[in-house]
Prior knowledge:
The chain is an alpha/beta fold and 405 residues long. It folds into 2 domains: 3-174, Acetylglutamate kinase-like (Carbamate kinase), CATH 3.40.1160.10; 254-401, VC0802-like (2-Layer Sandwich). 36% of the residues lie in helices and 29% in strands.
Amino acid sequence: MPCIVQKYGGSSVADVGRLQKIATAIGDLKRSGVDIAVVVSAMGKTTDQLVATSREISSAPPRREMDMLLSTGERITMAMLCMALHEQGIDAVSLTGSQAGIITNDRHNDAQVIEVRPFRVQDEMANGKVVIIGGFQGVSYKRDITTLGRGGSDTTAVALAAALNAERCEIYSDVDGVYSADPAMVPDARHLPEVSFPVMQEMSTAGAKVLHASAVQFAKEKNIAIYARATFSPGRETIVRQLSPGAVVGVQAVVSEKQVERVRLHANDIHGCFKNTVDYLEKNQVPIKEVNFTDLPAGAEQSAASFIVSTKDIYGWARIKSALVHNLKEKIVFDADLGALSLIGEGLNRNNLTLLETLDLLAEKQIKVLGIATTAFRISLLVPVEQIENSVALCHTRWVANNGK
């Protein structure tokens, strides 16, 4: 019997009426002769509400206790969806991430899936049941409840699809797939029917919200196609899968991120300064990216290093910054109020033309570029955060709406 893994995001399960509609769709699919595992997020804004409540008690709550708290949101959803299925005559069972065999490392708030042992899921499917699994959560090898970071339910779904050898993984949300820009920022953003794994991963890392970056990485490693669809508006979809090199060339999307800060280090002993700083951030589970390191010869000016931190979902960032300033004093500088603009696509850096023309485009509008980073599939520019929306609109018009002409 074919197996399908589905994932429903928070907006799709925001109230009882939506849960009942989803239950009807799942029931129809089950009756067609398909084994189904369904991964669910917390209902609506439940996770945000839990975070806000925790901060009424503590400005820097222990990460382990935050995981215990936040994992409750998905448990509510999975139990209620099971009840809705039972009302429709569909046998279903709810499982937590740990019961479903999602094994993670021992990091809290942004744990990584290291293994999936889906024996309980397979047993329940063999008994004819639809299995409803709480997303975003697992259990560490130390037997602590862990969470996978915001959007981690995507990772749960793809990891399960791989372990179950599923026919496909369907990700349902309030949008009908992936767009060339955030439609809320760029009204004429284009729907993308197909996106390659590398391009989607770069989009997710750079700030696109449709799919979680670690889920795309997992799908790429296991070669599992992801179908991104709108829950209540059937029709269009985006398929994320392996595409032939060169199938789509040029800028496919313009992605942005508003809550970023650049950290700059200046010291004679830049090696020690950089290592101690990154060690401290790692202990506080703060990921960094876009690392730049320059060690100058003896007698020259102070050597320097810099990197970017996405601050949106970092608990206690103000406290972490304060501790670094206390320890490093004038050796460390934080550049806040920045936004990151990223052009995503294949072949962008085969030459420098795309980068040069983008710099000219922004300069014409007096938008100052404060940093540049590139990969094989991405050109990222740091600009003042108050100019990020205008920058995205300009670049989308130039490179996507006009097809790069």
